[in-house]
Amino acid sequence: MKNLIRATLILALLITNKNFSQEVEMDSILPVMLDEVIVSTPFGETAEENVIKVTKVDLAKMSAVNTQTMKDVLAETPGLSFISTGPGIYKPNIRGLSSNRVVVFNQNIRYENQQWGDEHGIDIATGGVSSVELIKGPASILYGSDAIGGVLYFNPQKYLIYNGTKGDFSTFYNTNYSGFNSTIGVSTTIDEFSLIARASVVENGDYSGSKRPDGYEGPYESTGMESKDFQLALGYSKGNYSSDFRINFNESTLYVPHGDEEEGHDDHDDGDHDDDHDDDHDDDHDDHEEHEEEESYQDIENFIVSWKNDIKFDNSTFTVTAGFSQNLRKEFGHHDEHGDEHGDDDHDDDHDDDHDDDHDDDHDDHDDHDEHGEEAALDMTLRVTSLDWKYVNEKNDNIELAIGGNFIHQTNENHGEEVLVPNATKNDMGLFMLSHFHFDSSDLMLGVRADMRQIDAIGIEKTYTSMTASAGYKKDLGKSSIFRVNMATGYRAPNLSELFSDGEHHGTGRYEIGSSELSVEKNFQTDISFETSSEKSSLLVDLFYNNINDYIFLNPTGAQTDEFMPVYEYAQSDATILGGEIAYSSKTGIDWLSYYASMEYLRGKKKNDGWLPDIPPVTFKLNLDLDFSEKINYAIDILHKARQDKVATFENSTHSNFLVDVSGQYDLNTSYPGAKAQLFWKVENVFDKYYYDHLSRFKNYGFF
Description:
By secondary structure, the chain is mostly beta strands. The protein is 9% helix and 51% strand.
């Protein structure tokens, strides 16, 4: 409580400082650029004009040292956090909702990579992304099922708008992982035609820091990762027609740490560890060689093809986007060959009867071995074909209208001995209509959508339908002040894992059992937002209340498998999440010093009692920007997270932590005309504090 009060007082002092009227360069400290067109909403408006509150982060305006991963890029965005397992596996968490409750768009199409699993990351390289747009709250009107938590829209690298050629290369070295993160790209435009080619490579070893409290100095096993990403884009634009064709291939190897997630880590703090904790670590180190033999890892391949076409008429635009993606996921090591260890024979037989014959044929023909000849215990192929279209009638008598729809066909196939989710086919269809009314100093937006999802798996056919609606109001208060209120409903049909899961998830240390009787999640959220900005400073306040009916969650049964893995079943309960964010930026009385401060609070609870999982603690961030000249910049980033003891049944609580990062960036002189070179560095956790991040699964393994 003292830490929370202290952080609140600091933020209040920053907001009321006497330099409020001094001039400030907004683009140097704010991630939200109000003059850029928002792509994730249909009317081609800027963030300031939009009735829906959208946060846009422009990578070109960021310090290069903060663009190594998407987690780094979005780290300062209030209301957004990440559930992570090291540098390779991180999932966006928007106001306490993640996985299939957050829709991700990449390369102009909906991005599907089996994100239902906690141990699956988004696998998107930063090299080919120009900006990221974030919608916090239900966006089912535009994106259908699964968008009850929000949307992350990754805008791909833009084509050159002039005839010519431009290239870039950057590389980072990370001491904690002894790893490199490099990207090289080239873009060119010749009259109507444009081309972009890019390759990115990440190679990280196992995580190791300074000497730990238990005295062990070696690296944490199975925490490294490798990734290769290739992108090609072809653009054409002439007259009223433009075309954008993109190909993306990503290949990753992600090592999965192992450990006892349920024992010895009930209450984490920043360094006050008892003897039992140390003993556990000592035992782990004694078994170091044994663990190496049981190393677990994932081999993942993502392949995406998209083709976006825009046709402009006198007062309207028609857009159609076709896409295809394929995700190949293999897991090696630390798997049991048998599908059922908890004794639920009936459930397992259902899988066997409908799956084994076809499965054996597929398994014989499928390449399910790694480079060392080891057989993949889990081998899945997910293919998605999509078609999106929308017609936007531009402002006519102060009214804009957008109608659109989408169709998604998805198939999941298994080729390995272990089956977590069955072979299945899924179809999504949806239609929406959104209207925007412009008045003298206010705007009104109304929308409605109809959706249907069909799932066919292990002889069970499920059909889910839903109607969703939204209403938003924006009022210009003068002097660059804006008030918004948005109300929206959302829905999410159960995913394959929740319906049919029956197996060990080694990335999370649980045996999970699905239920085919789960019903649709539905939510209603109210957002209230106020922002004011000028040439001097900026203030943003967001408040929200989210009511979720039939929230799906994992419930511990108290049983264990023969390998002592805890068994969890999917269940449902009504839930509520409420909270908000406040952010403020300003220039100080010192010419070279400006700052950006934010605070966020979330509270998530099930109706029948019990806290929701993966709720971030109260978080305070302060970023000091030191611009000594046009060529020299330093930054000091301060992060304070409060204690989080309001946790779900299978979660560990965490104590508060206070971290400081320092970074620098220098523009170097070059002898080549038109060339620009930069040197950048960053020291994280300057004071070497031992801590557990609440949304990092490293805490479950006792990894600092």
